[in-house]
Amino acid sequence: xxxxxxxxxxxxxxxGYDFYAGVPCSFLTPFINTVIDSEKLTYISAAxxxxxxALAAGRALAGKRPxxxxxxxxxxNAVSPLTSLTWVFxxxxxxxxxxxGAPDVADEPQHELMGRITTDMLDTMDLPWEIFPDDAxxxxxxxxxxxxxxxxxGRPYVLLMKKGTVAPxxxxxxxxxxxxxxxxxxxxxxxxxxxxxxxxxxxxxVERTDPAASVVIASTGFAGRxxxxxxxxxxxxxxxxxxGCAPLLGLGLALARPDLDVIVVDGDGAAxxxxxxxxxxxxxxxxxxxxxxxxxxxxxxxxxxxxxxxxLSFAAIAxxxxxxTTYEGHDRAVIDQMLAGGSQGPAFSHLHIAPGTDxxxxxxxxxxxxxxxxxxMAHIGAGL
Length: 384
Hints:
With 384 residues, the protein is of the alpha/beta class. Helix content is 39%, strand content 18%. The protein has two domains: 5-161, 3-Layer(aba) Sandwich (Rossmann fold), CATH 3.40.50.970; 185-380, Rossmann fold (3-Layer(aba) Sandwich). The chain has helices at 5-13, 29-37, 49-61, 75-84, 86-89, 112-124, 136-153, 198-208, 222-230, 246-256, 268-273, 277-284, 314-321, 333-339, 369-380, and strands at residues 17-22, 42-45, 65-71, 94-98, 129-131, 157-161, 185-187, 214-218, 236-238, 261-267, 289-295, 298-299, 305-306, 325-329, 347-352. It has a seven-stranded parallel β-sheet, with helices on both faces.
């Protein structure tokens, strides 16, 4: 049987699902088209499937029920956030994954292997799944099982969509998501040897942020550990794993909570890993999102191996993809500039910092990731 997209979408809305992030697949076309054309729903076009998961996770951090959509070939892009973000922090999202190359369906050769191993991958990642309902009468029962699992575990659930499940739907609104908000302000840095340390930069950020009105999300590695060592506040979230996903997590939260300033502390290695995320933040990012990139030119927490950041300007990239205000510099003034307000969109600062940290006295958070998440959600008044 074939169902209309709204047979599922309307029933899902009753559970609070009004936010969809994803990467298109031909199996999903009618579903995505219907979401885009709805005035009551939000669709975010992600650069890749892992970004969609991180975006949805940010929405879940605000206590909402989000959906991430992707082709099963994109599970490879999503493994990191599915295993070290949503699973570890217990952030429940509904995944709609199409089953290209399913054993009983003739498909293109690039889908053969992934089609054969899709359900094994889901099982291995501890992701419960079932076939996406093809009958409107079965939708309520499926959503009830999804909700029961999320309430019990706080973790994602997968609906695996087969070919032809949803009836065709033409796209009426094909407007580009890029925001047009006037001139871009870009202040590049003059060549200089960095002298500010990560700790000094983070200490300045802590001084400038109000715990009652802001959330600070620190990227995995030394950024999170150093922030924790400086001040373990209820408005802090320390990423573990899911490298490169902090900005997308912040975007999902900032869109859901415009009353909060959401500040993402990124690193050069993490930013390079998911550089496409910057284009998504530029296109969809609200004025309450701030992206601070601390660049020491290396993967310091794994032994100091050099990144390629010495040959590029992240601030210039941010300006090129559409951030409305971007700053680059070697002192803490770029943090002040970023937080000063007046930006027409997400603000970005690229702060060159000196390598080095006191590893011997750099603690790891004593609370588990799930406890840190629960504390933050309680602090901002978001319940799951």
